[in-house]
TrEMBL record:
Source taxon at top rank: Eukaryota
Domain N-acetyltransferase: 73-246
SUPFAM superfamilies from the UniProt entry: Acyl-CoA N-acyltransferases (Nat)
Protein known as: N-acetyltransferase domain-containing protein
């Protein structure tokens, strides 16, 4: 059985928008060649599929002894892939624009000690095989479903000047390599290109690692989810963090 991530956005599987379950990892992360890392937006279906596989692997804990675990994992990835394509293509109601930002590394530069991860999250860019090692969505919208809405900016500009980060994840094998920080910094660049002035992200109250990362990136707390709402949605209480982006 799959176990829902406590930092995840919970709705129907076909339209879920998850938040990164950043936490201190006990895995000794190998050093990587950061000069070989590419952080970019993608519309390539092969890369979107690899990102969907990483998200399923990150946000769902599957019992290795479960029957047909590979089939179940693929089923979850297919649903995430279709939902991701729908959002990126602009077909999801309530979203002005959505971009999938990925961090990728050449397959040749990664250890073979986690072949299951590399084979699942691998794609070809036409030149070489690469692996999606981190991913997030940048959502230009007023609010995310079932989440606290931001308050900035006010007035008519809210429809095009506010954005939210969601589905932020990094492969557990590569924690503590600065991948999450680079993803968020890239999302700031994309947001400014869109004319975004105010960016938000949700994080659970108890997730200290995530809060440290977002604070390092310049976010500050704007509000907290009411305790009754968290109980009603059967999830840990969340904080809403805000970042003001400089205008050019």
């Amino acid at each position: 059985m799959a176990k829902s991530n406590t930092d995840g956005f919970r709705s129907s599987p076909s339209c879920r928008l998850r938040l990164r379950p950043i936490s201190a990892s006990h895995i000794l992360a190998p050093a990587i060649d950061r000069s070989a890392m590419v952080i970019s937006e993608t519309v390539s279906e092969d890369e979107l599929w690899a990102a969907a596989c990483l998200r399923v692997r990150t946000f769902n804990e599957l019992n290795p002894s479960s029957y047909n675990i590979q089939d179940h994992r693929r089923y979850l990835a297919e649903r995430e892939f279709e939902a991701l394509k729908e959002r990126v293509s602009g077909k999801r109601e309530g979203f002005t624009r959505v971009s999938c930002v990925n961090a990728t590394l050449p397959l040749s530069q990664l250890s073979t000690s986690s072949e299951d991860f590399f084979s699942a999250c691998k794609f070809s860019d036409g030149i070489e095989d690469r692996v999606v090692v981190g991913s997030l969505d940048l959502n230009q919208c007023r609010w995310l479903p079932d989440e606290i809405a931001g308050t900035k900016p006010e007035g008519f500009s809210v429809d095009f000047a506010r954005a939210y980060l969601s589905n932020v994840c990094v492969a557990k094998e590569l924690h503590r390599n600065g991948v999450g920080y680079k993803l968020i910094e890239k999302s700031k660049v994309v947001a400014r290109e869109w004319g975004i002035t105010d960016m938000y992200v949700h994080v659970t109250v108890v997730n200290e690692a995530a809060k440290r990362l977002y604070m390092k990136c310049g976010f500050e707390q704007e509000s907290a989810e009411p305790a009754w709402q968290a109980r009603y949605l059967n999830r840990p209480q969340r904080l809403l963090l805000w970042l003001s982006l400089p205008t050019s």
